[in-house]
């Protein structure tokens, strides 16, 4: 009984998570070919061990060398890192005051405020990105508004630029930033702030000396929760970004669907994962530290 | 000492305005007469009528609901099993790999999950369609379900189960009459989470869908690429409305359940 309980989800994940992964790795070492499926070598098990040996000898790192040669790819990686990092920073800038306000709000308001933060998260991601197209376009509401108040004299181009991508990421990932920060701020012991003020701190000084350091675990968790998915983001750069917005998720998608170069798409995926391993490990360390501090 | 300062009020107001104004604009302009989405030309519900006559959207919506229902049900069963394994099974061979496989999909970029599953289906020469999307969605959402359920199980008083065994229950009886009712709220929210994740997913569905199995997000994405359209606004309004009602109902019922439980324990 116990064995069955372990075996069913285990086998499911092995077959549909780990094995597919091995296939990506394998295809990333293959070569592009005009065939179906469009790569070579194909593993032919009917010839037995010899077939396998031949297959093995034809795998190489060529696609990875190609990725380092063509500056499109490393530029895309760098620009994904930059866009993800900057958007994370903007999300923190917008999210922290919201979380802080929620933590200071009267207790009977807080469940409602929480609900208001979580509600957009349940609403379709695609729709929330789509909503910004109508706002940011040249005839869009933002330009209409800025023209009406006389701040600009001609529409400014925001849609299809990197700025639109920053706005999109900040908007859609905001709940991921607010919730962990709110969780740490809510637990913060108010008497610490009182003590700081009794010792002669102004409110602002007390904020910097007490609130900010104590909210650090929540801030770090929030940043990772935004940064990690933003790095591989596809929908936002393809709907809000311009043709020159380089993000690796978009490159992978186009390499696969438009160029049909599966080996290169697979290699792009493997490198993206290698890049993601670092923030993921750091994130887990942060979580573990927090859990230990909690005990 | 918590004080609501004017800074707090301003930042909350601006924050929620930022979160909600885009959706409000979408909703308001779905009732716009004009085809031009950014110019108001009077109230009309004609776009809802057109939407309901658009076969392609209705078909896609039906496919999406089907995929969501089956994948989240499978994900809930598998995810609950996985939660039991994580919390209860102690050490077994390959445990680290198992928990790695539970947590990795949560941080895996969707493009990679989608690509890897597609390559799997192709190398097994499985025909792509509703079935393959269900498999793909069940796989990533079971991980979310197991996280939700295992966090409930971690705080669970095991002596209740032991009492059931002492009173002569078999393993299945004890599970049915003691364990399941206790973890039920977590299992239900796991199912709901899996269902929403499935309804919402564009990237993984695009990789694993066949030509005859377009889901609603795929359909929306392909028409949104051409620009804003009032029909999509109408569709978005319907989705936002359904989600809002669902979330509010769910939060009220869970609050009532909590109050009832507190009264019972008192």
Automatic annotation (TrEMBL), chain A:
UniProt keyword Cell membrane, yes or no: yes
GO cellular component: plasma membrane
Gene3D superfamilies: MetI-like
Identification of the protein by name: Putrescine transport system permease protein
Membrane topology label: Multi-pass membrane protein
Biological process annotations from GO: transmembrane transport
Presence of keyword Metal-binding: no
Origin: domain of life: Bacteria
Keywords: Cell membrane, Membrane, Transmembrane, Transmembrane helix, Transport
Domain ABC transmembrane type-1: 77-283
Annotated compartments: Cell membrane
InterPro entries associated with the record: MetI-like (IPR000515), MetI-like_sf (IPR035906)
Record-stated family: Belongs to the binding-protein-dependent transport system permease family. CysTW subfamily.
TM region(s), chain numbering: 7-29, 76-100, 112-135, 166-185, 205-227, 265-283
From TrEMBL, chain B:
Chief place of localization: membrane
One GO cellular component term: plasma membrane
Keywords: Cell membrane, Membrane, Transmembrane, Transmembrane helix, Transport
KW Glycoprotein (keyword) present: no
Residue ranges of the TM segments: 7-31, 67-88, 100-124, 130-149, 178-199, 232-252
Compartments in which it is found: Cell membrane
GO BP term, pick one: transmembrane transport
Record has Membrane as a keyword: yes
InterPro entries, sorted: Bact_Polyamine_Transport, MetI-like, MetI-like_sf
Bilayer disposition of the protein: Multi-pass membrane protein
Family: Belongs to the binding-protein-dependent transport system permease family. CysTW subfamily.
Protein name per its UniProtKB record: Putrescine transport system permease protein
């Amino acid at each position: 009984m116990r064995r069955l309980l372990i075996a069913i989800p285990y086998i499911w994940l092995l077959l549909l998570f780990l094995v597919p992964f091995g296939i990506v790795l394998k295809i990333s070492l293959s070569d592009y070919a005009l065939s179906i499926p469009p790569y070579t070598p194909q593993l032919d098990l009917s010839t037995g061990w010899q077939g396998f040996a031949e297959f093995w000898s034809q795998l190489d790192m060529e696609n990875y060398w190609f990725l380092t040669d063509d500056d499109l790819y490393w530029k895309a990686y760098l620009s994904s890192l930059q866009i993800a990092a900057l958007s994370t920073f903007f999300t923190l800038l917008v999210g922290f005051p919201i979380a802080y306000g929620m933590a200071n709000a009267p207790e009977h308001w807080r469940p409602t405020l929480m609900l208001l933060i979580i509600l957009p998260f349940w609403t379709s991601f695609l729709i929330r990105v789509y909503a910004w197209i109508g706002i940011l376009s040249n005839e869009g509401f933002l330009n209409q508004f800025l023209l009406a108040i006389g701040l600009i004299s001609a529409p400014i181009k925001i849609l299809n630029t990197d700025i639109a991508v920053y706005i999109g990421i900040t908007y859609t990932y905001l709940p991921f930033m607010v919730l962990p920060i709110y969780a740490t701020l809510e637990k913060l012991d108010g008497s610490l702030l009182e003590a700081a003020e009794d010792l002669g701190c102004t409110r602002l000084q007390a904020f910097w000396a007490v609130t900010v350091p104590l909210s650090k675990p929540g801030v770090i968790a929030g940043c990772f929760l935004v940064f990690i998915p933003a790095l591989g983001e596809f929908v936002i750069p393809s709907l809000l970004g311009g043709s020159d917005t380089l993000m690796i998720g978009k490159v992978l998608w186009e390499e696969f669907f438009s160029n049909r170069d599966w080996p290169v798409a697979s290699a792009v995926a493997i490198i993206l994962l290698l890049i993601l391993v670092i923030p993921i490990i750091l994130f887990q360390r942060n979580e573990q530290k927090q859990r230990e501090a909690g005990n | 000492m918590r004080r609501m300062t004017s800074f707090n009020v301003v930042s909350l107001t601006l924050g929620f305005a930022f979160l909600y104004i885009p959706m409000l604009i979408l909703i308001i302009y779905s009732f716009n007469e004009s085809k031009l989405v950014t110019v108001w030309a009077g109230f009309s519900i004609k776009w809802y009528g057109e939407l309901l006559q658009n076969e392609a959207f209705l078909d896609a919506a039906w496919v999406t609901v089907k995929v969501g229902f089956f994948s989240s049900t499978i994900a809930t069963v598998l995810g609950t099993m996985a939660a039991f394994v994580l919390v209860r099974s102690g050490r077994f061979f390959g445990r680290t790999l198992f928990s790695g496989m539970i947590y990795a999909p949560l941080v895996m970029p969707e493009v990679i999950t989608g690509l890897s599953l597609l390559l799997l289906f192709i190398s097994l020469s499985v025909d792509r369609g509703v079935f393959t999307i269900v498999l793909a969605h069940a796989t990533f959402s079971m991980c979310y379900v197991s996280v939700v359920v295992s966090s409930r199980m971690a705080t669970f008083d095991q002596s209740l189960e032991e009492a059931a065994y002492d009173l002569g229950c078999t393993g299945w009886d004890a599970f049915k009459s003691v364990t399941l009712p206790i973890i039920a709220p977590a299992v239900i929210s796991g199912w709901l989470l899996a269902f929403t994740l499935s309804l919402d997913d564009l990237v993984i569905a695009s990789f694993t869908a066949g030509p005859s199995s377009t889901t609603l997000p795929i359909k929306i994405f392909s028409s949104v690429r051409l620009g804003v359209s009032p029909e999509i606004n109408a569709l978005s309004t319907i989705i936002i409305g359904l989600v809002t009602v669902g979330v509010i109902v769910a939060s009220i019922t869970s609050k009532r359940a909590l109050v009832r439980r507190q009264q019972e324990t008192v």
